[in-house]
Amino acid sequence: GRLFRNEGIDLTHNPEFTSCEFYMAYADYFDLMDITEKLLAGMVYSIFGSYKVKYQPNGPEGEEWEINFEPPYRRLDMMKDLEAVLKCKLPNPENLHTEESRKALSDLCEKHEVECTPPRTAARLLDKLVGEFLEEQCIAPTFIINHPKVMSPLAKYHRSIPGLTERFELFVAKKEICNAYTELND
Q1: Is this model's pTM higher than 0.85 or not?
Q2: Going residue by residue through the chain (186 aa), what tens digit of pLDDT does each one get?
Q3: Which residues form the Aminoacyl-transfer RNA synthetases class-II family profile domain (predicted)?
Q4: Of the candidates 143, 144, 98, which has an alpha carbon nearest to the alpha carbon of residue 125?
Q5: Do 158 and 145 form a contact (C-beta atoms < 8 A)?
Q6: Which of 15, 32, 54, 104 has the greatest count of CB atoms below 10 A from its CB?
Q7: Residue in 67, 69, 71 with CA at minimum distance from that of residue 33
Q8: Which domains occur in the chain, in start order?
């Protein structure tokens, strides 16, 4: 439905927008990713008669991207894939609340010239690194999964990886279009 948020406006945020929100009993984030893929792919196919859409992010004179919405969508594991791109070991997700981890992430941001205005918390620093190095890869629909607990206080803790949660964000054309997680139920 239609929503209004009393917040600022910029190129990627409008205070008035349309959103789709749902909750599903007994579902986890794998179920939600499957539903999201089917919903988005079905909508694109219904509108365009194809899963492939041409998009010019910088206007009609700019570069043209062909975005394929046919499932399955690529999945990037936030911490593992960020480590691969940065070619370094990140702090253990279970220790991201510590000053040592915050300092390590701050140093990484400085090394890679990634800006982060105060407060420079571990969650904000990590979010800036992900924005610079993972989200920029997400032209075709891509899920970024398994966010650390410090970034996801309402998400259920990951069933097998300590320090992470069962959360995902879906990006298309480098923009976040979906944020979801297994509901915290303990």
Answers
A1: yes
A2: 888 888 889 877 888 988 889 899 999 999 999 999 999 999 999 999 999 999 999 999 999 999 999 999 999 999 999 999 999 999 999 999 999 999 999 999 999 999 999 999 999 999 999 999 999 999 999 999 999 999 999 999 999 999 999 999 999 999 999 999 999 887
A3: 1-186
A4: 98
A5: no
A6: 32
A7: 71
A8: 2-181 (3.30.930.10)
